């Protein structure tokens, strides 16, 4: 009996879920959750091409200031996000930046602010298939530093609040009780989202780079949320984080050449 090795079987071929092949994606890949936000990113790229659209995974590739950049939506949660990173890595992607929406857990944070993650609390099950529970989920420090510095330099021009800290990746959007949210807030957790810890973990295991920046969708501590109409400040935050990340990629790539 021969047990299938998925890693060997999928390396360098057209990928089962994401449906991309070698040469389709750039070194740098932005990872929004919503497929519609892949289209939003594409508007900021030069010569964007729709590469694949399968399940929750929608991929464009283009350039920004001459640097190759792709964007692939991941859907919601760590399982689908980890598949995206695995399959994109199989065809040559090396640097992954989650651009997400996230709920704030500290009272001073407002809708539309930008949050840069310095680490993620692993309140999810996907990472356990890769590393022990006690193993930390952290982004690449150089990449994250570049994003923080770039965001600070663009803060006045784009007019956003900027916060840096530890986030939490939870599995159950509707399973988060008031007690759970209060516990996270008391621990000093900055925000809660649903993908970063798995993205960090897979990238680490595969010796790749990952980071995460999110626009604030609401604040679970102050009750500032928008559920029944368009969240205009969040939409503005998406555009601002895209601009910050694309400029960060350009600066990071330029510094790599020095």
From TrEMBL:
GO terms for molecular function: pentosyltransferase activity. This is Uridine phosphorylase. GO terms for cellular component: cytosol. The keyword Glycosyltransferase applies. Residues 27-219 form the Nucleoside phosphorylase domain. Coiled coil: none annotated. One of its GO terms (biological process) is nucleoside catabolic process. PANTHER family: URIDINE PHOSPHORYLASE. It comes from the Bacteria. The lineage of its organism: Bacteria, Bacillati, Bacillota, Clostridia, Eubacteriales. Keywords: Glycosyltransferase, Transferase. Belongs to the PNP/UDP phosphorylase family. InterPro entries: Nucleoside_phosphorylase_CS, Nucleoside_phosphorylase_d, Nucleoside_phosphorylase_sf.
